[in-house]
Design goal:
The protein is 46% helix and 11% strand. The protein has two domains: 37 residues, no CATH class; 55 residues, no CATH class. It is mainly alpha-helical and 107 residues long. A two-stranded parallel ribbon has the order 1-2. Helix 3 links the parallel strand 1 and strand 2. It contains four helices and two strands. It is globular and about 40 Å long. The N and C termini lie far apart (48 Å).
Length: 107
């Protein structure tokens, strides 16, 4: 059996360090994106991982769609997952895909 290396790999440590250093710039970036219409003003807290919607009871599948095309592709999958009595959290990376999700997916 191969030994598992101990500690955190250098690349991951570098990523964590860079992420921590750049985190203070997130509000500036999000504000700029909001002014350009690329962020929904009422949903900015979600970009920080805060939601107004409580987590449903039971198992939950999380599906993230970066674009409209990805969202449209997973709609049948979401239906199949819900048939298995799983809750589904669907997040999206664009204002347009979020608008389509609100129209086409159950609350």
């Amino acid at each position: 059996m191969a030994a598992v290396p101990e500690g955190v790999p250098l690349a991951l440590r570098g990523y964590r360090l860079l992420s921590s250093a750049l985190a203070p710039l997130a509000p500036v970036l999000l504000s700029h994106r909001r002014r350009r219409g690329k962020e929904h003003p009422a949903r900015l807290k979600e970009r920080y991982g805060h939601s107004e919607i409580p987590r449903p009871p039971g198992p939950l599948a999380w599906i993230h769609c970066a674009s409209v095309g990805e969202l449209l592709t997973v709609i049948p999958l979401i239906g199949r997952i819900r048939e298995k009595e799983f809750g589904v959290l669907c997040t999206s990376g664009t204002v347009t895909s979020a608008s389509i999700a609100e129209l086409r997916l159950p609350r």
